[in-house]
UniProtKB/TrEMBL annotation:
Belongs to the P-Pant transferase superfamily. Gsp/Sfp/HetI/AcpT family. It comes from the Bacteria. The keyword Endoplasmic reticulum does not apply. PANTHER family: L-AMINOADIPATE-SEMIALDEHYDE DEHYDROGENASE-PHOSPHOPANTETHEINYL TRANSFERASE (PTHR12215:SF10), PHOSPHOPANTETHEINE TRANSFERASE (PTHR12215). Gene3D superfamilies: 4'-phosphopantetheinyl transferase domain. The lineage of its organism: Bacteria, Bacillati, Bacillota, Bacilli, Bacillales. InterPro entries: 4-PPantetheinyl_Trfase_dom (IPR008278), 4-PPantetheinyl_Trfase_dom_sf (IPR037143), AASDHPPT_N (IPR055066), P-Pant_transferase_sf (IPR050559). The keyword Ribonucleoprotein does not apply. Residues 100-168 form the 4'-phosphopantetheinyl transferase domain. This is 4'-phosphopantetheinyl transferase superfamily protein. Keywords: Transferase. Residues 13-95 form the 4'-phosphopantetheinyl transferase N-terminal domain. GO terms for molecular function: transferase activity.
Amino acid sequence: MTTVAYCKIGDMPAEWQHYLPFLEAEVVQRVERMRKVEDQLRTVCAHLLTKMVLVTTFKKELSDVCFSKDSNDKYQIEQNLQFNITHSGNYVACAISKFPVGIDIEQHVKRDFSLFQSLWSDEEKQLYPLHEQEAFYSLWTAKESYGKYKGFGLQSCLTEVTIHQDGTIHLPDRIEKALAVSFVIAPKYSATVCIEDSLEAVTRYEWEQIGAFFNSV
């Protein structure tokens, strides 16, 4: 089964750099290159959250939790355990599964929705009122999570994919074995996880829990 965890970055302490030694060198280098503190906080929190859940829920040893990427640039822990992370606005989230998995959250912001028509299939344009914020972000996160599940981003080729309101993913020649499952994290946010199995739990963690965990090891 798939587990989803999320956290609010606004509660992170000013001394968040104290936790950088728990991250891989590649991640730390990427964080140091980021110009915006908000981007740094999101990346650090997402990786720490994932490591903590792997230890506390999946019973991994922290010393064994070393993230690597496969040929599709997707994170994996080992052959039979994969995860995906996402962040937007004031929240980060991770999804961990024994199967390929993709997750996306998006904060609702004002957009000119007409500029995104090239992302949707003709059928999706009929199924969803895409001029409305809720419908737009619901489909956006579903498409993005599917792209991450497959190992590519939100690209024009996704116009060949139609995601129905029940989460089924329809390709030109078949129905995908994965489902796009929406879940709730906060008002004015949309969130979807693309999974092959069932969604076991969606758990909110406070920063205090993450900090306490890493301060204790």
